[in-house]
Amino acid sequence: MDFKGSDTIPGPRTxxxxxxxAEAAVKIVIVGGFGVGKTTMVGSVSEIRxxxxxxxxxxxxxxxxxxxxxxxxxxxxxxxxFGRISITDxxxxxLFGTPxxxxxxxxxxxxxxxxxxxxxxxxxxxxEVSFDVIGRLEERGVPFVVAVNSFPDAPRxxxxxxxxxxxxxxxxxxxxxxxxxxxxxxxxxxxLMHFLHSLAVSGALR
Length: 206
Ligand SMILES: Nc1nc2c(ncn2[C@@H]2O[C@H](COP(=O)(O)OP(=O)(O)OP(=O)(O)O)[C@@H](O)[C@H]2O)c(=O)[nH]1
Ligand SMILES: [Mg+2]
Description:
Protein name: ATP-binding protein
InterPro entries: Gliding_Motility_GTPase, Gpn, P-loop_NTPase
Bound molecules: guanosine-5'-triphosphate, magnesium ion
Family: Belongs to the GPN-loop GTPase family.
Strand content: 15-25%
CATH class: Alpha Beta
Low-confidence stretches: none
Pfam families: ATP_bind_1
GO molecular function: ATP binding; GTP binding; hydrolase activity
């Protein structure tokens, strides 16, 4: 078949192409309850235009969906967010943000598949959601760090109090962040990478 006359299918945009020096790619999931800032984090840190699957929150969701903060929030993730960040010239992270609404949590198992590690985003106004989230990661054996996304009106707790409230082992890093800021989101990912590295060195990484 002669395709000479056909329109050329555009290739990937230059900024979307992997650096030719990239040697390793790692899958990381960003997980947490409804509206904690997962999509915002993937968007702020991604070096490619992030893929999002957000749908407008409508009246139909009232009584079905979580509605915390919905006076300011108009969209919610229904499948996943996807982004990419190069940590070094050789190491690239692929970021998968999970949906926060409980009715979509069944999708998490697929998203956890092959993940080397996770960021658990936490809003201290709704700590209770984090118990389920952390429980699921522990069940799957996915190592994680906890990042507290500091909303202005959220109660502030010391790291030790948070560790106790979430029943986290001593070695699991807990950091504060503002996911709207690229540098802050990047710091969280660096914390996770250092944690994964320490697990690998100690032989604890499965
Ligand atoms: N003030 C403040 N607002 C934030 C912060 N992080 C996120 N937001 C806002 O909070 C809202 C929730 O962010 P999303 O990124 O949609 O949260 P999500 O976790 O992806 O939500 P779901 O996909 O619905 O679970 C957005 O309107 C953000 O702009 C923060 O650190 N401070
Ligand atoms: Mg989202």
